Every structure is written in structure tokens, then in C-alpha cells.
Amino acid sequence: MPTTVNELTAENGVKVYLVGTAHFSRESQADVIKTIRSVKPNVVMVELCQNRASILSLDEELLMKEASNITFQKISHSVKENGLVQGLLQILLLNLSAHITKQLGMAPGGEFRAAFKEVKTLPGCKIQLGDRPIAVTLQRALGALNWFQRLKLAWCLITSSGSISPEDVEKCKQKDMLEEVLQEMTGEFPALSRVFVQERDIYLAHSLKMASLLSMQDFNKHQNNHSAPTVVGVVGIGHCPGIINVWGTDHNVASLLIIPPPTMVGRFLKLFIRVTFFGCLGYSFYRIARFTHGFIVSNYSYIYHI
Asked: Where, by residue number, does the polypeptide cross the bilayer (predicted)?
């Protein structure tokens, strides 16, 4: 097994092989392929939600083009679907992903596409989407930050333009480098670390347990297809320590799907932004109408005197 694979055992005895990956890594794709071919699982869980499932089947070149091209249409669609603040945050995250895509010449999610292709070669094997919906994660993350922290986060995402190489990506799979990155994130934005990492560790661990139940059911129905009920989980390597840590414990997963209500300050600022926007829009129309009216009146007067 690759060194990035951890073996877990579910309560029902199902073996779970957890593959830790870097999202822009050719080596991670090879690790996923080798693991799936070695254990021949009947369920493969990937760190994706329904809203991001399209990256499993889209062409690599098309994904690279889409990932590296942030258009006004994408921004408008994101704001319309997710609201102003959350939509802009999602665009900033996409912009950071686009920056990495351009530098590495590689579309994100290659390890998930590799897993999906391998699943299609195994009779009866199923793919399971195991991550929490991205919209819930973003709303919980924003709800955990005050407005100063949101502005600081936006500034960090806007100015994140440092260079990165394939070697840097592979280093992120090393334990000491991984711990350093997580500690840096915790120091800057502890609330984000809790929402993006710790909460999703719990959610992904729960998804793996659900996959183990599905695996056992499938094994009981089709024992001739598999020597033993097994699951392969494909997740970002930053989630592996947390998943292993919470594996034998129970958590209230439903509470991780609750979206916090907006604060009084948040509602006021949201209203202020809307009023300002429509006020500026209305004033612009007023200026245009006034100019048009003056132009028509002056030309009518000129024609009348002729």
C-alpha cells in the first residue's frame, strides 16, 4: 500500500482504506489507482458533495479551462445562487484555485476522477459522495467570523498570488509540513479551521461509516463479486489525522448541517449594501433621465424656433 494510506476497521468489521491526497498531485492519483486495484472495494467514498460532483465526469481540458477562467457570468451566477457575501467568498476561493491551476497546469480533483474511472471497471462497485454540501460549509464559516475577519479573509484571498510548484504540492503530503500548514491556518482564522477542517473531519468519518454499512449490505447480496466487504475513502490528506482521531467516537452530525442565523450587525450591513446599491442605481437612472429630458427639450425648442 502507498504510505499515504491508513487502514481503519468499522464497527461491523468492514475494512476501510483511507487514502490521503493532495488535490493537485499526479502521485496522489497513482496512489488512489493502486489502492483501488489492490483491495477491489465495493464502495469508494470521495471528498465531494453533490454540487461539486460534476468534476468526476468532465473532461480534463474543459475543467482546466473552466477552473482558470473566472468570468463576470460566473460571478453573477454565484451571487445569485448563494447571496452577495457568500457568493463573493466562493468566487475568491475559485480564483485561488484558478491561480494554482494556471501555475501547475493541472485541473483540481484529479484523484477523484481517477477513483471514478477505477470504480467503473469493478463490477458492482459504487461511488459515494461523502462531503458536506459546500454551501453549508461556506455559510457556517461566514457565520463564525465577524465582519472584520471576513474583510481580512477576503484580502488574504485576493492577495494570495505566490508561486507554487509540483514539488511544493508533494511536500504538503509530509506530516511535518501538513502540521505547519494547519497550525498557520488555526493561528490566523481559528473559526475557519474548525469549520473547514474539524467539522468536515467528523462529517467525512460519518460518511465512511455509512459507506461501511452499504459495503456490508452489498457484500451480503453479491458475495461472489468480492472476497470481503471493503471501502476506500479518498480525502485530502489534511483530513486524515482528524478522521482517525474521531473514528471510534459518536457525534451529532445533524448539528453540522445547521446554518446559523445572521447577526443584527450582519443584517444591517446586508441591508446597507442593498440600499446603497439600489440607491446608486436609482441615482444613475435619474441622471440619465434628466440628461435625456434636457436634450429632448433643447432640441424641441431649437426645432420650434426654426
From this structure: none
The Cα diameter of the chain in Å comes to: 99
31-41 tens-digit pLDDT = 999 999 999 99
How far is the CA of 129 from the CAs of 52, 191, 295, in angstroms? 9, 25, 61
Sorted by sequence, the CB contacts under 8 Å of residue 306 that are 6+ apart come out as none
CA atoms within 13 A on the CB side of 150: 20
pLDDT of the residue at 118: 96
Q: How far is CA 155 from CA 42, 106, 144, in A?
A: 44, 25, 17
Angle between helix 72-82 and 84-104 (nearest 10): 140
What are the angstrom distances between the C-alpha of 257 and each of 61, 96, 260?
34, 26, 9
Mean pLDDT of the chain: 75
Distances from the Cα of 76 to the Cα of 47, 67, 91, 206, angstroms = 27, 16, 10, 34
Half-sphere exposure of 50 (CA within 13 A, CB side): 3
Provide the pLDDT for residue 54.
82
Q: Which residues of the chain have pLDDT under 70?
A: 59-106, 153-188, 223-226, 262-306
For residues 222, 233, 131, 200, the Cα torsion angle rounded to the nearest 10 degrees is 140
Q: pLDDT by residue (tens digit) across 129-163?
A: 999 998 898 888 888 877 777 777 666 666 665 66
Collect all residues with Cβ–Cβ distance below 8 Å to 32 and sequence separation of at least 6: 19, 21, 111, 114, 115, 118, 232, 234
What's the confidence (pLDDT) of residue 306? 46
Which pLDDT belongs to residue 90? 60
